[in-house]
Specification:
The complex is a heterodimer of chains A (116) and B (113). Chain A is built from no helices and 11 strands. With 116 residues, chain A is mainly beta. In chain A, a hairpin with a 3-residue loop joins strand 4 (31-38) and strand 5 (42-50). The mean pLDDT of chain A is 92. In chain B, strands 2, 4, 5, 9, 10 and 11 form a 6-stranded mixed β-sheet that branches. A 5-stranded antiparallel β-sheet of chain B has the order 1-3-8-7-6, with no helix packed on it. In chain B, strand 4 (32-38) and strand 5 (45-51) form a beta hairpin. Chain B is globular and about 40 Å long. The mean pLDDT of chain B is 92. The chains are: A mainly beta (116), B mainly beta (113).
Amino acid sequence: DSGVTQTPKHLITATGQRVTLRCSPRSGDLSVYWYQQSLDQGLQFLIQYYNGEERAKGNILERFSAQQFPDLHSELNLSSLELGDSALYFCASSATTSGGRDGELFFGEGSRLTVL
Amino acid sequence: GENVEQHPSTLSVQEGDSAVIKCTYSDSASNYFPWYKQELGKGPQLIIDIRSNVGEKKDQRIAVTLNKTAKHFSLHITETQPEDSAVYFCAATLRGGADGLTFGKGTHLIIQP
């Protein structure tokens, strides 16, 4: 158990809809990262927050947004969903700001999104 | 663009044999190279990492080697066991880590009994 909690574990929705994925980082970790995992693209970095502030941005679509709340949990919002958004979405946390450069990223078990 | 290439995509070895997974990276400024293991239904978990100031690091049956000149690094697993079956991802900090960790596309390691 990594200590990172993600909900929901599975989500099925239709094209055009909006969903919210939730992540609680490990106790004490200030950084939260979101990754998208698809079969053909591997693990793609989406966005990082540190202590409530956006820290780094990767290949995140404009239809997607995220935020980190004062209690450090984070939410990833996916809107106007398309079939190609079907993927596993992972949240990870770390104690540092540096995107995993200084050490371990702790991953949750992921939220599997299926868009029909 | 900057990326991390990983080979092979699938590797099948007999139990007890060694397995080697290779990665190349494009950014010569990269200085941190972790390897993550993902078991079925789980998130990736760090198994070993190496920084650019060393050429090799070992942890029991697992070792990582780094060749900064050639910009490639490899994961070596010796005396493979059934529990080594998983997907392995290499990663590197490209563009100074501005994009977080950049992962390779993964290698599905299958240990044959």
